[in-house]
Amino acid sequence: MHRRLLAATESFPIAGAFTISRGAKTTAEVVTCTIGASGLTGRGECVPYGRYGESVASVLAAIEEMRGAIEDGMGREDLANVMPAGAARNALDCALWDLEAKLSGVPTWQVINTAAPQQLVTAYTLSLGEPEAMQRQATEHAWRPLLKVKVGTTDDAERIRAVRAGAPESAIILDANEGWTPENLAYHFSICAEARIALVEQPLPAGNDSALRDHARPILVCADESVHRTADVAKLADRYDAINIKLDKAGGLTEALMLREMAKEHDLKIMVGCMVGTSLGMAPAVLLAQGADFVDLDGPLLLARDREPGLRYDGSDVYPPEAALWG
User: Fold this and answer.
1) How large is the average pLDDT for residues 253-278?
2) Cβ–Cβ < 8 Å for 121, 317
3) Which GO molecular function entries does the Swiss-Prot or TrEMBL record give (predicted)?
4) Which of 145, 149, 121, 146 is nearest to 135 (CA)?
5) Position 19 confidence tier, pLDDT thresholds 50, 70, 90
């Protein structure tokens, strides 16, 4: 069965701007991969991330290098042997999953989960800003049950307090994006405990997070940049309480499913997160996130426009993908 592989870049405007400690952006640049066979087409989307040395050009080049193997019939199980984890492999892996579902008539959820998928409550992300601006954001979205707040400066106390004041009843996740230090860790943890923060993501830089092992953790601490592959999990279990599984980091749904099982084996809580992308990129993650402790799949909600058809969002609920979208 001969296949045809295509990859293209697309740009989706962000509603306003999305700001983290590393900078701001106004568009989501995604790479879409399609694999066709027998008159059917599977699709996958990825978001190249500069933090991991990726660019749109490098991801397109990595996918192009796989053209011959994919068109000759390479399966997703073999991708991990020839491609590193990352965005390019994610686009290919998810396109292969989608193609398999279309060729077999068996939906992806039926292959990976034991029960039909249900809607999930997703976090909604608030950008980094001055405390007053962040409090206004929090007040606007205080009706949501779960907020994710970008922090990661040398002193985030007033930002944390401002967000809690703006959304007194919401559960709050903080994402420090590697912006804290071993020296200010205890200080920030104390502020988190005061503000009833549910979880903080990646407070220290990946590769320089051993201090977490020696600090009392009054709140849950989640690995993000520190965890990509299953091999990372055992090395991190002594310093984290949870891991954030993202398809673009893991290199696709295949590896992400193994990460989910590895986290359970090490008694780590599971968060399923995303980059800022469209519903096509979120769709497989919604299936992965079934049963997760924390879900952060709000990428399409941050865009000025999404794909059609897209995922169904109702407030903070996100529903499983229809076959017309993916899987």
Assistant:
1) 97
2) yes
3) metal ion binding; racemase and epimerase activity, acting on amino acids and derivatives
4) 149
5) confident
Average pLDDT score over residue span 153-180: 97
Q: For the domain bounded by 112-318, which CATH number is listed?
A: 3.20.20.120
Could you list the residues known to form a binding site for Mg(2+), using ranges.
175, 201, 224
Catalytically active residues are: 150, 246
- Taking the domains of the chain in order of start, what are their residue ranges? 4-105, 112-318
| Distance from C-alpha of 247 to C-alpha of 85, rounded to nearest angstrom | 9
Q: Beta-strand (E) ranges in the chain?
A: 4-20, 23-37, 40-46, 120-121, 124-126, 146-150, 171-175, 199-201, 220-223, 242-245, 269-272, 294-295, 313-314, 317-318
Tell me: the pLDDT tens digits for 39-88?
A: 999 999 999 999 999 999 999 999 999 999 999 999 999 999 999 999 99
d(C-alpha 127, C-alpha 170), whole Å: 16
Task: With CA atoms as reference, report the closest residue to 118 among 308, 289, 307.
Answer: 289
Check whether domain 4-105 has CATH 3.40.430.10, yes or no = no
**From residue 41, how far is each of 22, 108, 255, 324 by CA, in Å?**
37, 15, 22, 11
| Average of per-residue pLDDT across 149-172 | 97
Question: What is the Cα–Cα distance from 295 to 15, expressed in whole angstroms?
Answer: 21
How many helices and strands in the chain, by DSSP H and E? 13, 14
Q: What is the pLDDT of residue 22?
A: 67
- Known binding-site positions: 175, 201, 224
Residue 20, pLDDT above cutoff 80: no
Name the β-bridge partners of 317.
Answer: 121, 314
